[in-house]
Specification:
The complex is a heterodimer of chains A (307) and B (360). Chain A is mainly alpha-helical. Chain A has helices at 2-13, 18-23, 26-52, 70-77, 79-111, 115-126, 133-144, 149-157, 171-194, 200-207, 212-240, 244-250, 257-266, 271-304, and strands at residues 56-58, 62-64. In chain A, α10 (200-207) crosses α11, α11 packs antiparallel against α14 and α13 (257-266) runs antiparallel to α14. The two termini of chain A are 18 Å apart. Chain B folds into two domains: 4-228, P-loop containing nucleotide triphosphate hydrolases (Rossmann fold, 3-Layer(aba) Sandwich), CATH 3.40.50.300; 236-358, OB fold (Dihydrolipoamide Acetyltransferase, E2P). Chain B has helices at 42-50, 72-75, 92-102, 107-120, 136-148, 166-183, 194-200, 218-223, 228-233; strands at residues 4-13, 16-26, 31-35, 57-62, 65-66, 78-80, 154-158, 186-191, 203-208, 211-216, 238-246, 252-256, 259-262, 272-278, 284-287, 293-302, 306-313, 316-323, 335-339, 346-348. In chain B, the strands form four sheets. Chain B has a six-stranded mixed sheet, sandwiched between helices. In chain B, a hairpin with a 2-residue loop joins β1 and β2 (16-26). The longest helix of chain B has 18 residues, at 166-183. Classes of the chains: A mainly alpha (307), B alpha+beta (360). Chains A and B meet through α10, α11 and α14 of A and α2 and α3 of B.
């Protein structure tokens, strides 16, 4: 392999002809449209948000184009925002952990199923991704709301008073709904890892005297760990900036960063503050994601390759 | 009383029988190969011995103990898998030590035994590497070390060399056999490579379509194939169809068309259609009209140490394997004679199962 790449590299280094020089531009032409598309539609709004976050806001005068850092000092040093950020990351962390605990075994069990069941169960797991998040979350409202099924069930068991039992506007409620919305991502991610695992390593461990659970813990799980970690990353990042589910189930009483940005923009009309909150969230997320994936990469470079 | 006994071991998958009533006894320290084409049931047999597949019927007895229903992790057999199945997230030492760890062997004793077995396979300098960082041959030896370190009563090898290139495979055949001799572990190897089976084993079990065709020492299996399947699968051969007859002296001979060929070492038999086998290396090429039959060279293949000729003769297309002794050999289109000694002709039984009729 290494000889091959060396050879091809040598070939690439030989004198470039006119033809190959014009060929060299092809990648730029091919990626150009998409690059322009992203620069305009993603880069520009982001840049405008960044600029906006430095503008001044006044309740009477509105937004003025005088530059200030006060929005950032508000976000970074106000206990109110600290609480919202902490809550957001707490929800993200718990949701991620729940997705690991539920999704990783789920993926493994479905992966080891026989022919027709395997595809059927995978379809059932991934099917909800085809339904709008809002619809799925509203489904949870019906289940965990004040007159919901859960409440009726608890009342029947005598565990809840006559006033009912509601998980609406609670962190538990948000986490339950978020886990349901995001667990398919963990299944997909672990599934991709499982496809690279040589399942005869499990047989080998058995033959060496390991008990079935030890095989899972010591041999199979470490091999799908990259999938678990990258799935966690996706879920953590998505939860930290998720809007629909926290806004429906958490509402105004249980604000997270995304919903508070929304409120700053649309209720208070304090666009610059909203912009600075979202920039802080973006920076935090980027830092977390980057350092996490660098750690993962370094951890698995020697054992499992570019997994 | 033999060490390992398989008693009419059978496996059905739905209506298809993968293994049909296999009987086999293996002595302590013996190296036995299961040889056969893919789908002959040899891997299923190995999996049943390992405990990964539950037999439909039959028993597996080792050292007087019935192991048929024992879980794979309670059998204590060492297994080398075709894919090696090394644990990619563990170093070589950790891989080899895994079985010892499962047996709760103390750390210092573990280290000593890991070092010892890695020395045996000449990999002690690579103990801190990960499997990904090793070559195919090295991984193969790690897999062997991992299976041997637990000092198993039985070593199972599932196509252990099939992922190696030809040159390395030959070296590893020798090395694997030497290690097995040194350690003295009873070994059962599954392979589809007849050269591998012949060169490594004490005995070969030739299988086809779930049935055992012959159990014999490699030399016997090659020289005295039990039936047509064995003679064609183990090595190359020329098959000739003819009739049994008696010559003028009243001795049995083989008749084909108007020609009669002498046979040796065969008692009186009834006249009737028979099939004989002559190995290509027993077919000797002579100048025109000096052999038993005449023919014309159709193709020739040079293989370094020998030439392989296809010769069109009156008895059919014959394969001749002639050692390369210097001169350039015959050319395509040359008219040659062909002869063989009476004792090179093997009389073949028809296969007991009608299924082997497809082979010719």
């Amino acid at each position: 392999m290494s000889e091959m790449t060396l050879e091809s590299r040598m070939a690439g280094r030989s004198r470039p002809s006119v033809r190959s020089r014009s060929l060299a531009w092809i990648p730029f032409w091919l990626t150009g449209p998409a690059a322009v598309f992203f620069l305009v539609l993603l880069g520009m709004p982001l840049l405008m948000t960044l600029v906006l976050s430095f503008y001044t806001f006044d309740y009477t005068a509105g937004i003025s184009e005088t530059l200030t850092l006060s929005n950032y000092t508000d976000v970074l040093f106000d206990g109110y925002f600290h609480e919202i950020f902490l809550r957001t990351y707490e929800i993200s962390l718990i949701t991620t952990l729940c997705c690991v605990v539920l999704g990783a075994p789920e993926a493994y069990i479905i992966y080891r199923m026989r022919r027709p069941w395997r595809s059927i169960c995978l379809l059932i797991t991934l099917g909800p991704l085809l339904i709008s998040v809002v619809v799925r979350t509203l489904g949870w409202v019906l289940l965990i709301g004040g007159n919901g099924l859960l409440s009726q069930f608890m009342q029947a068991l005598g565990l809840a008073g006559t006033r009912g039992f509601s998980l609406m506007y609670t962190q538990t409620g948000v986490v339950i709904a978020m886990v349901h919305v995001l667990v398919p991502f963990m299944v997909i991610s672990v599934w991709a890892s499982l496809r690279k695992v040589d399942l005869s390593t499990g047989d080998a461990a058995l033959s060496l005297g390991a008990k079935p659970f030890t095989v899972l813990r010591r041999v199979i799980f470490p091999q799908v760990l990259p999938g678990v970690l990258s799935g966690s990353l996706i879920i953590f990042a998505l939860t930290a900036s998720y809007f629909a589910t926290p806004s429906i189930i958490g509402g105004r009483r249980l604000k997270v960063v995304a919903t508070s940005v929304y409120d700053e923009y649309l209720s208070t009309m304090n666009w610059p503050l909203g912009a600075s909150i979202s920039i802080v969230l973006l920076v935090l997320n980027v830092v977390i994601v980057m350092s996490y994936s660098r750690w993962v990469e370094r951890r698995f470079r020697r054992t499992l390759g570019e997994g | 009383m033999s060490f390992l006994t398989l008693e009419s071991l059978t496996k059905h998958y739905g209506d298809t029988a993968a293994v049909k009533g296999l009987d086999l006894s293996i002595e302590q320290g013996e190296f036995v190969s299961l040889l056969g084409p893919s789908g002959c049931g040899k891997t299923t047999t190995l999996q049943m011995i390992a405990g990964f597949v539950t037999p439909t019927a039959g028993r597996l007895v080792m050292d007087g103990r019935d192991m048929t229903d024992l879980a794979p992790n309670a059998r204590g057999f060492g297994i080398v898998f075709q894919s090696y199945a090394l644990f990619p997230h563990m170093t070589i030492s950790e891989n080899v030590g895994f079985g010892l760890e499962m047996r709760k062997i103390a750390a210092h004793e573990r280290t000593r035994r890991i070092r010892q077995v890695l020395e045996l396979v000449r990999l002690d300098h690579l103990n801190d590497r990960y499997p990904r960082e090793l070559s195919g041959g090295q991984r193969q030896r790690v897999a062997l070390a991992r299976a041997l370190v637990i000092e198993p009563p039985l070593l199972l090898l599932d196509e252990p060399l099939s992922n190696l290139d030809a040159k390395l495979r030959e070296d590893m055949q020798l090395e694997l056999r030497n290690i097995q001799r040194n350690v003295g572990t009873t070994t059962l190897m599954v392979t589809h490579d007849q050269g591998e089976a012949l060169s490594m084993s004490d005995r070969v079990v030739v299988m086809d379509q779930g049935c055992v065709k012959q159990i014999a020492e490699p030399f016997r299996a090659y020289e005295e194939p039990a039936d047509i399947f064995v003679s064609t699968f183990v090595g190359k051969t020329n098959l000739l169809d003819g009739r049994m007859a008696s010559n003028d002296a009243g001795l049995p001979c083989f008749e084909m068309g108007r020609q009669r060929f002498e046979l040796a070492g065969i008692g009186m038999m009834e006249d009737g259609p028979v099939r004989v086998s002559i190995r290509p290396e027993r077919v000797e090429m002579t100048p025109w009209q000096q052999g038993l039959v005449d023919g014309r060279v159709k193709t020739r293949q040079f293989a370094g140490d020998h030439w392989l000729y296809q010769i069109e003769t009156s008895v059919g297309l014959l394969l001749a394997n002639c050692p390369n002794c210097g001169p350039a050999g015959f050319d395509i289109g040359d008219e040659v004679g062909v002869r063989w000694t009476p004792d090179s002709v093997r009389l073949l039984r028809e296969s007991p199962t009608p299924a082997a009729g497809g082979m010719s």
